[in-house]
Design a protein that fits this description.
The complex is a heterotrimer of chains A (about 325), B (about 220) and C (about 220). With about 325 residues, chain A is an alpha/beta fold. Chain A contains 13 helices and 13 strands. Chain A folds into 2 domains: about 1-245, P-loop containing nucleotide triphosphate hydrolases (Rossmann fold), CATH 3.40.50; about 250-315, Roll (CBS-domain), CATH 3.10.580.10. Helices cover about 35% and strands about 25% of the residues of chain A. The radius of gyration of chain A is 23 Å and the shape is globular. The model of chain A has no long low-confidence stretch (mean pLDDT about 90). With about 220 residues, chain B is an all-alpha fold. Chain B has one domain (about 10-220): Orthogonal Bundle (MetI-like fold), CATH 1.10.3720. Chain B has 9 helices and no strands. In chain B, α2 runs antiparallel to α7 (about 130-160) and α4 packs across α5. The model of chain B has no long low-confidence stretch (mean pLDDT about 85). By secondary structure, chain C is mostly helical. Chain C has a single domain, classed as MetI-like (MetI-like fold, Orthogonal Bundle). Chain C is built from 10 helices and no strands. In chain C, α7 packs antiparallel against α9 and α8 packs antiparallel against α9 (about 185-210). Chain C is elongated, with a radius of gyration of 20 Å. Chain C starts with a helix and ends with a helix. The chains are: A alpha/beta (about 325), B mainly alpha (about 220), C mainly alpha (about 220). The complex binds adenosine-5'-triphosphate (ATP) and magnesium ion. Adenosine-5'-triphosphate binds near residues 11, 38 and 40 of chain A. Adenosine-5'-triphosphate binds near residues 41, 43 and 194 of chain A.
């Protein structure tokens, strides 16, 4: 567990980047720091691996003040992914991934094998192993960055806007990939972004910071969307907060009507009550000419229908 | 050795003794022979460098030639030119112009390459004509790199002029020959100090010019 | 052309004190010693100030001032001071000349490395010297090699001046030829110097191929 205990960071020029931050980052989950530019997200993150030391307060990793640990040793046990990947241009991809294992003195073969395994894990072709970073696209480099951070199997992963330099489609696939990896690995991840959609998509917990480095709210994404703590958070979450909140409400409790004669999945929007959210169901209804969302099961059999009025009622809770 | 490194009275007597080898005259000659090549070099290097930046096939051969020029011993060039242009300042100025080119052409090319592509593209998109784009957008951005080259060219030129003394046209370099032949430190030390001082002044002037020309690039160095 | 045939065809230049191979070796000796000593001083210093950022302004400004030191003046001064018993009179001016390009390029190469690379390297737990040698140095290598090359070529071309105070090397042909108005000899000497410089140049190009990672070479 990572604990911020009354942490303040004041830079030499007097800028207060983080102001009296107290926060617990739970193990095995993704905690997202989100907020407008300059609100101190990066500074907070970098105080965990001692790239920056706090001016006041303490950052604890498993109960131990990080400033009592040698920085290099500390960092070798914490994965770190940054926006531009920061790969070593002079090393092949496989050796880039194996950087920390090499540092830790692993046997060469073992380190390379591990790197190859991770290459596949993050969804890259093993053929890429022998390439140099300049031969990869931005999205591929970012995947290598993630693989490199995971190489020595650190329990903690710090990610600073890792996906913000790639286009939206690649970003979405990288996000999916991260969630899939996390479901297997259960790392303690601190993820920084300024994109609220990314925050609610990835975070088990979301911490919203405001400019001046003050914590505005910490909550699970659904709670954040339904109960913003103040005007700043409400503003930051944006206007379609209501709709987005539905993404966190499961559709399984919807009361289904029997499907009228002749209603088929073709020509209607469909959703799967066992898996999808209320948002998907509402979307399906809006897409259907007659306003009916068709519920289907895993095999595509029609289970029933639900109308717009019933959906809006359910959304009201 | 009881001869002191510097005899101040020698300086007082020879600073301006009316003759052709008074320190003041040598200094003036030195300045002419050092700066004419740098200015001529800059005037030639800008169009040539721009051409090399625009037509890539020109670049490799030009750099190849400049690399050869750079490796020519100045003394050899002076000596060979002596048979053509005689004992004039031109004999020193021509080779030094070539050396300046060897430094300045790559500097201009690098400078033009330092213009980020998106800046060039957006200048095109905003409708800058090529000539205006060059003078208003590209050259100003290239200035720091070109001036860095100019500093090296100017300082080297000032130092190299003195080699010309071996063929009888070396500005302050005469003091080295004089001191050597008479086994007398003072002129040598005076020569070295003046050459270095001249170079420092030139360097500072270029740095000041750079600050004036590129206020946006003031670095926290 | 005639000059070349006259010079290289003359038996006078193939044996005895004035033999081309002998002069070439002397020239190589001065140049190499001066260059090696300069590199041993300038590379570590450049790495240090580039990495720590300490003393950078002073070092870079004085490096530029050192470029201004007139080789001829320094040469005659050192000879007058310590005599010609050793090689130092040639070495000192040449070292002064050779240091600035190496020092400045090494410094700029390290300092100019991508800040993200530096950040990532520290973030993964590399220590200061590991960041320098494993991440920054390989990336700065092309620029450092360029500085070494410029320095080596300047030294080869300038070592000719040594002949003025009675030392050997290829400059002998130029100085002696000048004294006797034998332009074939001057020209021949110059050609030898240029050939030597071109050989040095080729050597550096090859070295670049061998020691610079393809991943870095491509980016530049
Ligand atoms: N080294 C520094 N010296 C002085 N001020 C700094 C320094 N680094 C950051 N700051 C200031 O501290 C504040 C917080 O910076 P930080 O980088 O943590 O913001 P951020 O939330 O990560 O922003 P972004 O989303 O733009 O990356 C900003 O006002 C920034 O200007
Ligand atoms: Mg940031």
């Amino acid at each position: 567990m990572i604990t911020f205990d009354g942490v303040t960071k004041r830079y030499a020029d007097g800028t207060v980047a983080v102001d009296d931050l107290s926060l617990e980052v739970p193990d095995g989950a993704i905690t997202v720091f989100v907020g407008p530019s300059g609100c101190g997200k990066t500074t907070s993150l970098r105080m965990i691996n001692r790239m920056i030391d706090p001016t006041e307060g303490r950052v604890l990793l498993d109960g131990k003040d990080v400033t009592t640990v040698d920085p290099a040793t500390l960092r070798r046990g914490i994965g770190y992914v940054i926006q531009q990947a920061g790969l070593f241009p002079h090393r092949r991809i496989v050796d880039n991934i194996a950087t920390v294992p090499f540092l830790l003195g692993w046997d060469k073969k073992k380190a390379r094998d591990r790197a190859m395994e991770l290459l596949e894990r993050v969804g890259l072709d093993p053929k890429m192993a022998r390439r140099y970073p300049y031969q990869l696209s931005g999205g591929q480099q970012q995947r290598v960055g993630v693989a490199r951070a995971l190489a020595a199997d650190p329990p903690v992963l710090l990610m600073d806007e890792p996906f913000s330099a790639v286009d939206p489609i690649v970003r979405a696939s990288l996000q999916e990939e991260l969630l899939r990896l996390q479901s297997e690995l259960h790392k303690t991840i601190v993820f920084v972004t300024h994109d609220i959609d990314e925050a609610v998509k990835l975070g088990d917990t979301v911490a919203v910071l405001r400019v001046g480095g003050k914590l505005a709210q910490v909550a699970a994404p659904a709670d954040l969307l339904s109960d913003p703590a103040d005007d700043f958070v409400r503003e930051f979450l944006g206007r379609d907060r209501g709709i987005r909140r539905l993404g966190f409400v499961p559709a399984k409790n919807l009361a289904l009507d029997p499907a009228p004669e002749g209603v088929t999945p073709e020509g209607h929007g469909t959703f799967n009550p066992a898996r999808d959210s209320l948002r998907a169901a509402l979307d399906a209804a809006l897409l259907s000419p007659d306003g009916l969302a068709v519920a289907v099961d895993d095999d595509g059999r029609v289970l029933g229908v639900v109308g717009q009025a019933a959906l809006v009622g359910a959304a009201r809770g | 050795m009881d001869e002191p490194l510097v005899r101040w009275d020698w300086i007082a007597r020879n600073w301006d003794n009316g003759g052709p080898t008074s320190v003041k005259v040598l200094l003036e000659n030195h300045i002419v022979m050092a700066f004419v090549p740098v200015i001529a070099g800059l005037l030639i290097a800008i169009p040539l460098g721009l051409a090399c930046a625009r037509y890539r096939w020109l670049y490799q051969p030009t750099v190849g030639i400049m690399n050869v020029v750079y490796s020519l011993p100045s003394l050899a060039l002076f000596s060979i030119l002596l048979s053509v242009t005689g004992l004039t300042q031109t004999t020193v100025i021509i080779p030094l112009t070539l050396f300046s080119l060897a430094v300045l052409i790559p500097a201009v090319v690098d400078g033009m390459r330092s213009v980020p592509d998106h800046v060039r593209q957006s200048a095109v998109a905003m409708g800058f004509q090529p000539m205006r784009r060059l003078t208003r957008v590209e050259l100003p951005i290239a200035v720091p790199v070109v001036l860095a080259g100019l500093r090296v060219a100017a300082v080297s030129s000032i130092s190299l002029v003195s080699v010309g003394a071996l063929i009888g046209q070396g500005g302050l370099g005469y003091l080295f020959i004089d001191g050597w032949q008479r086994q007398f430190y003072t002129p040598i030390v005076v020569g070295i100090v003046l050459v270095v001082a001249l170079a420092l002044v030139a360097d500072l002037v270029i740095i000041a010019a750079q600050r004036l020309l590129t206020p946006w690039a003031r670095r926290r160095a | 052309m005639n000059w070349l045939i006259e010079f290289f065809g003359s038996a006078e230049y193939w044996s005895g004190d004035d033999a081309i191979p002998l002069r070439l070796l002397q020239h190589l000796e001065y140049s190499f010693l001066a260059f090696a000593i300069a590199a041993l001083i300038a590379i570590p210093l450049g790495l240090l100030i580039g990495h720590t950022g300490r003393g950078a302004v002073i070092v870079v400004v004085s490096a530029n001032a050192a470029r201004a030191l007139p080789t001829l003046g320094l040469l005659v001064l050192v000879v007058l001071l310590i005599g010609v018993g050793t090689l130092w009179p040639v070495l000192i001016p040449l070292i002064a000349l050779a240091i600035p390009p190496i020092l400045v390029n090494t410094y700029e190469g390290i300092r100019g490395a991508d800040p993200d690379l530096r950040d990532a390297a520290y973030g993964m737990g590399l220590r200061g010297s590991q960041v320098l040698f494993r991440a920054l140095l390989p990336v700065a290598l092309p620029l450092i090699l360029l500085g070494l090359r410029l320095s080596a070529i300047t030294v080869v071309a300038t070592a000719t001046v040594a002949a003025y105070v009675g030392l050997g090397g290829l400059g002998r042909y130029i100085i002696d030829g000048l004294a006797t108005k034998n332009y074939a000899e001057v020209f021949g000497g110059a050609v030898l110097v240029v050939l030597l410089a071109l050989a040095v140049q080729t050597g550096f190009t090859l070295l670049n191929r061998v020691i610079v990672s393809p991943g870095v070479r491509q980016v530049r």
